[in-house]
Amino acid sequence: MILLRYKKTYEKIAMGLLSYMPGDKTVKKLQEWIQRYETDDSWQLYLLKKDEDFIGLIGIELGEEDYTLQHLSVNPSFRGEGIGQEMVMKLQALFPDKTCIGTEETDLFIQKCKPKEEGSD
């Protein structure tokens, strides 16, 4: 599986994957998100490709020392296979010097992805 940076030709695929996110999924809202990823350099969107299919999407807002996980979505046919966790790990490999933080919607998932450290409570 490969993580690819969003480009305009992926717009419909990205909107479809974003529509799997909980919350406001109106076309207008999806277009606003895509517009933000296309125009704001600190917002970066990546799509996960398996064989010939795009099966997941992960979007972040880059900060100075961290990045905020804004969107994480996996095609329902591939859920429960660790795809979301794999995308988070691939993103951490892309930005090894930054800390991943979550939004109200994504924080719980990020906590589940963190490796269990020995001796931590």
Automatic annotation (TrEMBL):
<dbReference type="InterPro" id="IPR000182">
    <property type="entry name" value="GNAT_dom"/>
</dbReference>
<dbReference type="Pfam" id="PF00583">
    <property type="entry name" value="Acetyltransf_1"/>
</dbReference>
<feature type="domain" description="N-acetyltransferase">
    <location>
        <begin position="4"/>
        <end position="121"/>
    </location>
</feature>
<protein>
    <submittedName>
        <fullName>Riboflavin biosynthesis RibT protein</fullName>
    </submittedName>
</protein>
<dbReference type="InterPro" id="IPR016181">
    <property type="entry name" value="Acyl_CoA_acyltransferase"/>
</dbReference>
